[in-house]
Fold each of these.
Amino acid sequence: MILLSIEINCLRGIKNLHLDFNAKNAVIYGDNGTGKSGVIDAIDFLIKGDITRLSGTGSKSLTLGKHGKYVTEDINQAWVKAIVKLPNYAEEIEIKRYLNNPNVLVCDSKYKSDFEKISKLAESQAHYLSRREILQFINATDQDRSKSIEKLLNLYSLEKNRSALQKVKKSN
């Protein structure tokens, strides 16, 4: 999926923002507290109907309904809309997701199955790394770093395979 543009309304720390990517790579940068993570959260929400930082490890009692919306606004005003391109289609496609109904991605019904596949793929949480995850990875010991990679890429069988290979090596 190629993200052409995104509009974020009353989600996380963003009251209203429109970004045009024009199908090119983009870098989001700025001072602390300027909304960089909010843009990533909006993309996460648009694709999955969830914000990983609010439901992931260490999030405790944070909820999408209470902590997903812009602090001074009503949940009914919070939504994310994007114009995207899918590999098998020539046309641009509009998709939208509302915070008050996060399980429903609004789009033309002919694209529903394509977006369901994209959402399923995104459930692996390997589509981006947050700044916190990157810093945890950088500051980890070698042993913890490999466990971190396994977790981030959902490769839980990696340690099992590594142990089996080490046993074979020792037996020779």
Amino acid sequence: MDKLATAVAEGAFHRLVWANAGVPRDFLQMFSKSIEHARRAGRPRVELSDANLAIGEFGRQKMAELEEDARNEQNLLKRALEAIEEHCLESEKNKVNAFLIRSESSDEYKAVQTLSDLRLVHLLHQTITPHKAGERYEAYMLDYSLFTGFRQRRNIEQMLPEDGKQFKAKQLRKIPILPQGFLKTQP
């Protein structure tokens, strides 16, 4: 990490690694944008604020892709994303960047799968049973760009694996569950 530390601060590097959700191409694009921001600011290395700005820009690019790639569904998907953000990030009781959704054939579930395809939410685990056997849920994390700009939104708990490698079932069971029919409550 010594040579790497001359190019990027450790916190910025970890943020970029986590924010790309395991997609090397996304990491390289975010890192490149971070370097641009650092250079514009006259800094010799990428700092956390540079990484946050790059992540925010990447999010705007993803939203533009949503409008391009899902023209017929863009209003539904935007409503779904707004409802998820409200439930996870703005609700006083949740304040976490992740959610569970029941694995069933519903408009909400299909919208979440499409948002995952568009890289706006990321699958953490395919099968979680938070309450009782037979009730299957999937765990997702909101894309970092949805709550990071120049600074990360305050008081948002970030889902990170306890051991730094893999999520444990008990950790995932604590994630808030999206209410069934949440799209029907959106205007």
Amino acid sequence: MGKGKELLQIKLSDEQREKLNAEIKAFYFDERGEEIGIVEQMQLAELFEMKLAPIIYNKALDDAKAWYTRMADNLSYDYDTLYK
């Protein structure tokens, strides 16, 4: 993943994992009209947790860094404007 780092292993709590499994089950039923078994739910949840969550986490960090950089630039501009 960017910046030469391996993907982080993000661990969900039991409550978060249960919610993710319920979302997966609901998605399959609502979108595909199919029931999905617990093994398949667990496999998909593991895929999300191991492969997708770190990507989303890193994207959020990148977005936060970009926001922080813009705010720091604004602060610098405001300082320069006030400087006599």
Amino acid sequence: MVDIKDMLPQDAEGRLRIIQELVPGKQITLAHIIGGPRPIVYKKLGLNPDVDYDKSAIGIINMSPAESAVIAGDIATKEGDVYLGFVDRFSGTLIITGLIAEVTNAVEEIVRYFGSDLGYAVCDITRR
């Protein structure tokens, strides 16, 4: 029986050599709305529950190319009364907070705009 480790590239000392590549497409891979999260969720995300908890919803979107998060953040703040909790132009992650209706409107508009106007492949919006 052949061990898969023997088939992977190794360096001169027998250590595995792994090459990782990112080939970004134009896509939204995650669009999720968390309604009524508990304060611990805000804390673990690095958000201040004293400021954000009464807002009652968190929207999370992940996209590529990663710089698209800047565009999505702009759309979110123009579409609804939401707070930008986190925008990462290196990983393509956007986290917004606000009232559930405002977060929902913002996430829906981001997904619509990226799919219709920019030609991105978009996923369905999920809610919990």
